Amino acid sequence: MIxxxxxxxxxxxxxxxVAGGDVExxxxxxxxxxxxxxxxxxxxxFLYDIREDTGRRDVAPRAVYDENRRIIGREAPPxxxxxxxxxxxxxxxxxxxxxxxxxLLSTFLGFDQVPGGDxxxxxxxxxxxxxxxxxxxxxxxxxxxxxxxxxxxxxxxxKPSLDLVVVAPIEPGRTYETGPPVTExxxxxxxxxxxxxxxxxxxxxxxxxxxxxxxxxxxxxxAGAERRQVGDDEHPGRTxxxxxxxxDD
Length: 249
Prior knowledge:
Layout: H1 2-18, E1 24-26, H2 32-36, E2 42-52, E3 62-65, E4 71-75, E5 79-90, H3 94-108, H4 125-128, E6 134-137, H5 147-154, E7 162-170, E8 175-177, E9 188-190, E10 193-195, H6 197-208, E11 213-214, E12 240-241
């Protein structure tokens, strides 16, 4: 993923900023020794920080479909990482450096995400990802990081620069299998009787109209009482309603 971002930035700067001019694009660390070797105008894009953008992290897995649009698995969603680049211009004259920095500024302010497609700039996995690659430019750095500290670590003198942040997706590559698709109509068992799903709700409504539901064996035999079954269903395991009748019924 990092290599794809490097290639994307190089292509974008060469096509939109350099535009065929005699300016080199470098990704090397701009150390004192590196600067001493430069003999032509150069735009340097130095990657100095990589960290996850936890504010954009997704936790819900995504469904994976086959050619028949059936779910065959689930996969972990992409993670997004912030890649911070230090953009600098190196020429013999400060005016030329400022001109290149101005061109970089106006170019990257022209879009919030890197254009893709046939005429875009996305390379490698970024071009095939459904998650956009976002860019921000010249925002204040986090409190735990200072550009002056970066220049001190490089061993060079402080120089005008632009802080470019690219938020790029990366696939974790974790997948989870799912059960086979349902190919048969389900049945529901009530007691020992199999019923179609469409009949279950009708059976529930029928039972809700009964005054008192007991099992056949739970109704006692008493003198002067008669057991009367509501309904004509004789399946074993069913429940029935019985009404005790008076002698004059």
